[in-house]
Design brief:
Layout: E1 2-10, H1 18-26, E2 34-39, E3 47-51, H2 58-62, E4 65-72, H3 74-92, H4 97-101
Length: 102
């Protein structure tokens, strides 16, 4: 099941089409070039960057996914993760992203 964080970060290239991207993801429709930033699926990581179309696979239908960011293209997703990490560190002095976003 997909959950959306109340403080969703959106890359500049996607801001105008944010609502369309969210609708496509929620309705399990293919969308080109959109990447989701989620809490990490592995405890040693901070975030995962996932192509939105990967969420169409049955595995993700059974998994709990919390989306905290959306970006157009992988490069923008990486830049957005960097911004998010810098904000978390600036505000808390640590990299406990789940604590910061929940």
């Amino acid at each position: 099941m997909i959950h959306w964080n109340s403080r969703l970060y959106v890359g500049d290239k996607l801001k105008k089409k944010k609502d369309k991207a969210i609708d496509s993801i929620n309705n399990r429709k293919a969308i080109y070039g959109v990447y989701c930033i989620t809490f990490a699926s592995h405890p040693d990581n901070l975030f995962d960057i996932i192509d939105a179309n990967e969420l169409l696979f049955p595995h993700y239908k059974r998994s709990e996914i919390c989306i905290v960011g959306l970006a157009k293209g992988k490069d923008e997703a990486i830049s957005l993760v960097q911004e998010m990490l810098m904000e978390v560190y600036k505000e808390t002095g640590d990299f406990k992203v789940k604590n910061y976003f929940t």
